[in-house]
């Protein structure tokens, strides 16, 4: 077996346990996306055009609330900005690749592909064909995400329209938010964002959402900064 | 209605740009520590900003009372998420709660 192929398979294998957790998410996304009023084509293609789980759920939610396009685009940008950390962290490992490889691997760079790849790279050092590992991890995730979305879209389209599932989207956000609330700055970020979202709800163009998110981010970062300053003393 | 295709293509381009940025600019740009720290708080802030109006408002007006089934179902889901840490279970319990509280009223 060639070195490239072995790295590719190793990447796909490292991704496998993550895929088991991702599969139901794809199903839920597909079903809720069509239930929120997206066409089946839009719901399905969002999984390859955006290829970013939480941003896709949020886009479906905002679409169902008739949010203006610019605010939706801004929200996607804010939500996905964290990927810049992955980009920075993988950059030294990918620096000698051709532009074509960099473009392909950047497209596949999600939370779930980043996690096993960086672990592998930190352990293995600068091996020659290691970009194939990321391709194996990211590529298998991509394939599964498209497939699970398709099943979810198909399933969601068969749910009668009079059964309202619109509350399932906020429930999904609760399921993703609550387990992360372990430290005070996290709780404060969530609470302050929530309260501002209520106070600013009547602002035009759904700008209250952006304002609330920025408030929460600021509160969390400031509190963490104060905490670590205190610990450093 | 919002043009979803415009949103998807612009959002997709921006997302790709973010992922590609530092892989492309390797060594020419450092992320400031403050930004790094702030990025950890993006998911809880955004999720919360969506959740709160969904459960505390009915028809755009604050409704903090047992007569608000979304509030009761939301609180039930928060408890479920905390103890089960399972997305599917949280959604199922929350939806069942919503149908139940709507039916009781």
Core attributes:
heterodimer, A: 233 residues, mainly alpha, 2 domains, 11 helices, 78% helix, B: 105 residues, two-stranded antiparallel sheet
Describe this structure in words.
The complex is a heterodimer of chains A (233) and B (105). Chain A is mostly helical and 233 residues long. Chain A folds into two domains: 155 residues, no CATH class; 52 residues. Chain A has eleven helices and no strands. In chain B, strands 1-2 form a two-stranded antiparallel sheet. Chain B has 105 residues and is mainly alpha-helical. In chain B, 73% of the residues lie in helices and 4% in strands. Chain B is built from five helices and two strands; from the N terminus they run αααββαα. Chain B has two domains: 30 residues; 73 residues, no CATH class. In chain B, α4 runs antiparallel to α5. The interface between A and B is large, with 92 and 67 residues.
In a nutshell, what does this entry contain?
The complex is a heterodimer of chains A (233) and B (105). By secondary structure, chain A is an all-alpha fold.
Spatial order of the strands in the main sheet of chain B? 1-2
- How would you describe the shape of chain B? elongated
Largest sheet of chain B: 2 strands, antiparallel
Number of domains of chain B: 2
Number of strands of chain B: 2
By DSSP (H or I, 4+ residues per run), the number of helices of chain B equals: 5
- Output the structural class of chain B: mainly alpha
Counted up, domains of chain A total 2
Residues in helix, % of chain B: over 70%
Q: What is the H/E order of chain B?
A: HHHEEHH
Approximately how much beta-strand content do the residues of chain B carry?
Answer: under 5%
Low-confidence stretches of chain B: none
Major sheet summary line of chain A? none
Question: What structural category do the secondary elements of chain A indicate?
Answer: mainly alpha
Question: Layout of helices and strands, plus pairs?
Answer:
The complex is a heterodimer of chains A (233) and B (105).
Chain A: H1 3-35, H2 40-49, H3 53-64, H4 69-80, H5 83-94, H6 99-107, H7 111-124, H8 131-157, H9 168-177, H10 184-199, H11 207-232
Helix pairs in contact in A: 1-3, 1-7, 1-8, 2-8, 3-4, 3-9, 5-7, 7-8, 10-11
Chain B: H1 4-24, H2 33-39, H3 42-56, E1 57-58, E2 61-62, H4 69-84, H5 87-104
Antiparallel strand pairs in B: 1-2
Helix pairs in contact in B: 4-5
